[in-house]
Amino acid sequence: MEESLLCQWSVIRSILAIFQWWGFNVTVIIINKWIFQKLDFKFPLSVSCIHFISSAIGAYLVIKVLKLKPLILVDPEDRWKRIFPMSFIFCINIVLGNVSLRYIPVSFMQTIKSFTPATTVILQWLIWKKYFDWRIWASLIPIVGGILVTSVTELSFNILGFFAALFGCLATSTKTILAESLLHGFKFDSINTVYYMTPFATMILGVPALLLEGPGVVEWIRTCPSLFSSLIIILGSGVLAFCLNFSIFYVIHSTTAVTFNVAGNLKVAVAVTCSWLIFRNPISVMNAVGCAITLVGCTFYGYIRHMLSQTPGTPRTPRTPRGITELIPLVNEKLEDKV
């Protein structure tokens, strides 16, 4: 009886974790699009800076004040050699996502972002010479095909937004791959990752945002008809961006890998549907079909990866070969920090 109750609670906790993750993710995407489209605040670098600063403050409160997560200690030398390069890629990834949101609909942007598994596999194969089972390559076909159909039939196509989203996929893949090399030896969760990376990301992006968008932001503040409510929405998007990172930590620890993969793809469908209901961007039948094919392909890809990892005797994908950056000795050599 007690085991049955524990099992039921585990299922309920997983469902709640997924729904709160969906809620924060979709809300952040919708609010960002609202900021660019409805508030006419067309400054993606400034929005990204606000998100970084809010996330840095939130991570500090969670770790240092509320002590909800233990701090993973990293020596200053490791911060510059390992975390700073990751922060640079992280910064590019966030900025490109916001730039794409400014120019293309949420539905199109989310579909292109689903291309990330393909870019990750291709980069690892081309640059790091990783081996992949033929079933992995086969699972990428519907992803690539669905995105091609979506791109060709997109009624609100914008070349700048398209390439921003596409290069955002490459940045995401690069971040994932580099994490293997640069962060080996550290059991980073999403909160500690935010704690260490967002100060660097703010430092990297602060000056370009000030130089490129500063005059425009000042002019927007001067001419905005409803300044107070607009600023509340913009600052609120930063708070929600941090909450999204916290929700990712919670959902990863509450679900299995397969559930997380399926939930991630369903999240895209939820985001596309919500954005269409709010912004009413035109979506053709073939565009919707292409999006559906892409999401099915992503789910199939995740299933194949999980199946291969669980199958005895299946050749394991070799780890990314250690390059010069990975051979940098760890300053922090504490046993409890080892993977």
From TrEMBL:
GO (cellular component) term, any one: membrane
Keywords per UniProt: Membrane, Transmembrane, Transmembrane helix
Residue ranges of every copy of the Sugar phosphate transporter domain listed in the record: 16-301
Transmembrane segments: 12-31, 43-63, 83-104, 134-153, 159-182, 194-211, 231-251, 258-279, 285-304
Localization per record: Membrane
Membrane topology of the entry: Multi-pass membrane protein
Alphabetical list of Gene3D superfamilies matching this protein: 1.10.3730.20
Protein name, as recorded: UDP-galactose transporter 1
Species this protein is from: Dorcoceras hygrometricum
